[in-house]
Design a protein that fits this description.
Length: 434
């Protein structure tokens, strides 16, 4: 078993759902699709949540994606109304996204057909209540949705609170709940954390200069299962579930720490002092080591041991603020805010190589086979080997004017939300690259 396959099998899928038949839904969504039983097979093969089937931005074995990104690789491009930074979530015959239209005052979930990008449906979940202030690199629809086999669950910042909204695969509202107040005062930079699924719950984070919290809600009803306060401080990172140090852990960075919680009840397992006040990327892990990067006001990448000791194994002064990193076979791969690609040895932080790529980064690197794909905010893509010995470019290209979301890979296709500028007008597209 190679290191990539080993990492894929190292973490058991936390999402367990019963067998779900999704055939014959309205408007053809998931037509003739059936996902398997316990530890749903569809979740393993497809891209149901932020950072993919195992939470580490590694495509399932057998996946493929082009190493060049010019117009000749575009299978289809579907215009997306409004604006958002949420990544595409792929399940069965559909792809789910969120979007916001500030002029109309709406926040919506929408679906397009996986085979050709044809619009299937769009469901408004908030009309009015959109915050007036936001960071220029953020949007009012930045969190990615989570699909649990039966419903699409979206998180939005609206009306001075964080809301969870569930809609059916046919686009019909199922439930909506406010999970807690969210009204930043000092840094009015919006919200960005994506929901994560665990067992029968969906878990959401809200870190701001008020009463920050983590909360778990029942996926079927939206009712609160547990809620845990966090240290006051603005941060934007999404929580993630990892099986590390022999147990499932809910991991999150921010507020000068990397912290772990029991995803079953929200109890704190450990917290290690590291990183900056504000982080945006999702932490990554390898064995019993957890890695995070940020942020504001200082720049730091750090590795901590996930056994509860609070040990900071190593740290450096590099920064991946908005983008997440990638761990493969004992090594950490990252592209920093300075536009430099790094490979660090996970055990001690030794720099194996560095290579200047250029540009600014919000999109996170994703691994397909043994190739890492990453896009900068200017729309330039880079493909290079997950090779700890040297930087080894295998392709790249540019087809868009800007890229902020992270691509999702299912089968032989890369799905990526990107934008083009024409006559001073910006238009977002969901693009399928083959």
């Amino acid at each position: 078993m190679n290191p990539v396959e080993s990492q894929l099998t190292n973490r058991r899928i936390a999402l367990k759902v019963s067998a779900v038949g999704l055939a014959s839904l309205a408007m053809g969504v998931h037509s003739s699709s059936t996902f398997g039983a316990v530890e749903t097979e569809g979740a393993d093969r497809e891209w149901w949540t932020w950072r993919g089937p195992t939470g580490n931005n590694i495509a399932p074995a057998g996946s493929a994606a082009p190493n060049s990104y010019d117009n000749s690789r575009i299978a289809w491009a579907s215009p997306i109304p409004g604006r958002g930074h949420s990544s595409p979530i792929v399940a069965g015959g559909s792809i789910y996204l969120t979007t916001a239209d500030k002029a109309a005052g709406t926040q919506s979930v929408l679906a397009v057909a996986r085979k050709d990008g044809k619009a299937l449906w769009s469901q408004i979940v908030h009309q009015g209540g959109i915050p007036t202030d936001n960071h220029p690199k953020n949007t009012e629809a930045s969190p990615s949705v989570a699909f649990d086999g039966e419903r699409i669950i979206a998180s939005f910042y609206n009306s001075s609170a964080i809301w969870l909204s569930a809609v059916s695969p046919a686009g019909k509202p199922v439930w909506q709940k406010s999970v807690g107040p969210y009204n930043p005062q000092q840094f009015k930079y919006g919200y960005a954390a994506s929901p994560v699924l665990y067992g029968d719950t969906v878990i959401i984070a809200a870190d701001y200069d008020g009463q920050s919290f983590l909360a778990a809600h029942d996926r079927k009803t939206g009712n609160q299962v547990w809620k845990t306060p966090r240290k006051t401080g603005i941060s934007f990172s999404s929580p993630i579930i990892a099986n590390v140090a022999g147990r499932d852990q809910l991991l999150i960075s921010g507020n000068e720490s990397i912290s772990s919680y029991d995803p079953k009840n929200g109890q704190t397992l450990w917290s290690a002092q590291a990183l900056a006040n504000a982080t945006c990327g999702t932490v990554v892990w390898d064995g019993d080591l957890v890695f995070g990067s940020g942020g504001y006001p200082k720049s730091e990448t750090a590795c901590v041991r996930a056994d509860g000791s609070g040990q900071v194994v190593w740290a450096n002064n590099q920064k991946c603020y908005e983008q997440s990193m990638l761990t493969v076979g004992g090594f950490v791969y990252a592209v920093t805010d300075a536009g430099v690609a790094y490979c660090w040895r996970g055990s001690d932080g030794e720099t194996m190589w560095r290579e200047r790529l250029g540009g600014d980064y919000s999109s996170s690197p994703v691994l397909v086979g043994d190739v890492i794909h990453v896009f900068n905010e200017q729309g330039q893509g880079f493909a290079f080997k997950a090779n700890s010995m040297k930087y080894e470019s295998v392709g790249g290209g540019k087809f868009a004017d800007d890229v902020f979301p992270t691509p999702s890979i299912v089968g032989d296709t890369m799905f990526l939300r990107a934008a083009r500028q024409r006559a001073g007008v910006r238009q977002e597209y969901l693009v399928a690259l083959k």
